[in-house]
């Protein structure tokens, strides 16, 4: 993300509302501590630094995910970054059960270009983005296709976490492409058969019995 925001790393900012104290440690986590003398006062993690929220080529917030469990899911928090005179946690809410929203004010985001995504990318990824812009301009891809490419760029840059589903899809795609023709499939089968023969010989040389069923 934006290098100038890294100076917030290692620092923590707190906010007290009614009986709760919230603490936001950028690039680390968000915690909540109940300020009461109850024997079972809650104290726990509302989210751990996970990824950026990106909208319109701009870093608009930080997602803290995988916090303490809450019924069937984990607590998570979105931290909105807004311009302010000093670094401070200004507002906390819980828009939906176990999903929290924090507003963090900082002078580090006051410059209009301070949260642009493009300048934080490597040259290779910037080129990839430029090419996507050109394809969109030439109407060779749709808006949806353009957004998909951008998402891939952000994932490659480590700004967004690739979901497990995406990884699974990629693997399926890879396998499907590998065997899109019978010829390719037969070739691969032949190669594996040869490899098994060699391995059987090798096992035999070392006196290791190979157990395989006749159906193989």
UniProtKB/TrEMBL annotation:
Record's keyword terms, sorted: Disulfide bond, Glycoprotein, Golgi apparatus, Secreted, Signal, Transferase
Location of the protein in the cell: Golgi apparatus; Secreted
Main location, first listed in the record: Golgi
PROSITE patterns per record: DMAP1_BIND, MRH
Single GO cellular component term: extracellular region
Domain DMAP1-binding positions: 117-216
Transmembrane intervals: none
InterPro entries: DMAP1-bd, Gtb1-like, Man6P_isomerase_rcpt-bd_dom_sf, MRH_dom, OS9-like_dom
MF terms in GO: transferase activity
One Pfam family recorded for the sequence: PRKCSH
Domain MRH: 10-112
Subunit structure: Homodimer; disulfide-linked. Hexamer of two alpha (GNPTAB), two beta (GNPTAB) and two gamma (GNPTG) subunits; disulfide-linked. The alpha and/or the beta subunits of the enzyme constitute the catalytic subunits.
Known role: Non-catalytic subunit of the N-acetylglucosamine-1-phosphotransferase complex, an enzyme that catalyzes the formation of mannose 6-phosphate (M6P) markers on high mannose type oligosaccharides in the Golgi apparatus. Binds and presents the high mannose glycans of the acceptor to the catalytic alpha and beta subunits (GNPTAB). Enhances the rate of N-acetylglucosamine-1-phosphate transfer to the oligosaccharides of acid hydrolase acceptors.
Name by which UniProt lists this protein: N-acetylglucosamine-1-phosphotransferase subunit gamma
Organism: Mystacornis crossleyi
Gene assigned in the entry: Gnptg
């Amino acid at each position: 993300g934006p290098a100038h925001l890294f100076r917030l790393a290692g620092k923590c900012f707190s906010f007290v509302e009614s009986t709760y104290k919230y603490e936001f440690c950028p690039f680390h986590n968000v915690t909540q501590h109940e300020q009461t003398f109850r024997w079972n006062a809650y104290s726990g993690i509302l989210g751990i630094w996970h990824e950026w929220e990106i909208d319109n080529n701009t870093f608009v917030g930080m997602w803290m995910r995988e916090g303490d469990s809450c019924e069937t899911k984990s607590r998570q928090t979105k931290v909105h970054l807004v311009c302010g005179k000093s670094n401070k946690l200004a507002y906390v809410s819980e828009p939906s059960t176990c999903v929290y929203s924090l507003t963090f004010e900082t002078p580090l985001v006051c410059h209009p270009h301070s949260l642009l995504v493009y300048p934080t990318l490597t040259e290779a990824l910037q080129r990839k983005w430029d090419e996507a812009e050109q394809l969109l301009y030439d109407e060779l891809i749709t808006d949806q296709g353009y957004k998909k490419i951008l998402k891939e760029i952000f994932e490659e840059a480590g700004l967004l976490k690739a979901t497990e589903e995406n990884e699974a899809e990629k693997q399926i795609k890879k396998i499907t492409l590998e065997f899109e023709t019978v010829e390719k499939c037969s070739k691969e089968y032949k190669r594996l058969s040869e490899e098994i023969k060699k391995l059987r010989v090798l096992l035999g040389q070392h006196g290791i019995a190979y157990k395989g069923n006749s159906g193989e």
